[in-house]
Design goal:
Elements (H helix, E strand, L loop, with lengths): L1 H6 L13 H11 L11 E7 H16 L20 H15 L9 H10 L6 E8 L4 H20 L3 E5 L6 H8 L5 E10 L15 H4 L6
């Protein structure tokens, strides 16, 4: 378990090696045991691969390269006014992340290049799209986060990597055309899944020291 937690990271370079359906079924079946308040199990997951995913990537990438600002947001990706230290962590991680992919901060085409990498799911052969019913509240969104973390850790047990992408919410209507999600469902995020492309340098973003985020009381 410690090894899975330590080795899990958002991989942004996947090989084109296919992921067997039985492996995905095994992971997602086991993940049903993720914690869920009142046992609501509020997540709705669509697994997209093969030709449907290729078509989805193509349509989303075309929107990104055309400078399409995306669909009306159903929820904010981040607070409108990020304060320190959260803003500092986000800026530092973004600079490190995309510099590793050859996109410098002062590149005038940086936004478009980043969007195109994301809409290609970094080359992943599988994307899981997680939705929640629009009637669900913050507690159920927390449940979905615990469920997806469970999925990502189980993927490590299978030798697979993943990358959670809230970017897909920008093109949620394009995603919905592929998966057929009903109007009651809100797209939470996509999870790109596959085997890591070993030819691309690995990136591991830093984390705050435990003392910055954890307080021990009474021990």
């Amino acid at each position: 378990m410690y090894e899975a937690v330590d080795s899990r990271r958002a991989v942004r370079a996947f090989s084109n090696e296919p992921v067997p359906k039985e492996v995905l079924e095994r992971v997602l079946a086991a993940a049903t045991r993720a914690p869920s308040s009142a046992n609501l199990q509020p997540w709705h997951v669509y697994v997209v691969t093969g030709e449907p995913l290729a078509e989805l990537k193509q349509r989303a990438t075309a929107r990104a390269l055309a400078g399409d600002g995306g669909d009306e947001r159903q929820y904010p990706m981040y607070p409108a006014d990020l304060i320190a230290p959260y803003r500092d962590r986000a800026f530092a991680a973004a600079a490190q992340r995309y510099a590793a992919l050859g996109i410098e901060r002062d590149d005038p085409d940086r936004p478009m290049k980043i969007a195109a990498l994301n809409t290609d799911a970094f080359g992943a052969p599988v994307v899981l799209f997680c939705y929640l019913d629009q009637t669900m509240g913050p507690g159920q969104w927390g449940d979905a986060g615990m469920y997806l973390q469970t999925v990502m850790l189980l993927l490590r047990a299978e030798g697979l990597h993943s990358c959670p992408q809230v970017m897909w919410t920008m093109y949620r209507k394009t995603v919905s055309q592929t998966v057929g999600a009903g109007d009651r469902l809100i797209l939470f995020c996509g999870i790109s899944v596959g085997f890591e492309n070993e030819d691309v340098p690995r990136l591991r973003t830093g984390r705050a020291e435990m003392a910055e985020t954890v307080n021990f009381i009474g021990c």
